[in-house]
Sequence to fold (248 residues):
Amino acid sequence: MVDLTDRVALVTGASRGIGRGVALALAEAGAAVAVNYRERADAAEAVCSEIAAAGGQAIAVQADVTDADAVAAMVKQVVAELGGLGILVNNAGIIADAYLTFMKPEAWREVVDVSLTGAFLCTKAAVRPMMKGRWGRIVNMSSDAGLMGDLMRAHYSAAKAGLLGLTKAAARELAGQGITVNAVAPGIIETDMTADMDDKRAEAMMSMIPLRRFGVPEDVAGLVVWLCSDAAAYITGQTISVDGGLRM
Fold:
């Protein structure tokens, strides 16, 4: 069992999907968790209530991760209310499917800003309290789309691939401060983002997965929690896929 007692974690985009699963798993391991959201306050509060009902500690923190000032204020709030910050999971991301030839520049910018720029801004703000304690864990939520590319998702694939470069650069820069930085690359996970997938595409994707099932948030959360533990202290700058063997 992973023990994260006395650790404080911030999970961006944690009101639903993989982020929600990660927040719950970190809390189950003993961490106090800040549940970030942009608009869905009710969903974020529901996650906090679920954590509290299980005996854990959590707060909901609103911030648009593409806004540097909002991110700085969020980190300040987390440190003030939870007593520090040692774990950051950059999970916030959006998808807006469109073929490359029809993709609008503003759609490109929005997707890249949330997934990639948001991770940069949150990492920049979070490392300050981590450096004070000379201990930190940063996990960037990439995607198999960033490793393989994905149809109608040039912006999403580019952003998730960019996260891998950010992960390696940050891992090199922060290693001397006792901070590890790794990336997790989920495959097809059953969340709100995949709920609208049509049956034909779902069958086609399923046929390429050796384990013959789509993942669930808990499949990703278990790895994230482990990467945030002392058991993973000698792992940094790495990307680990959680995809049932899709990208083998």
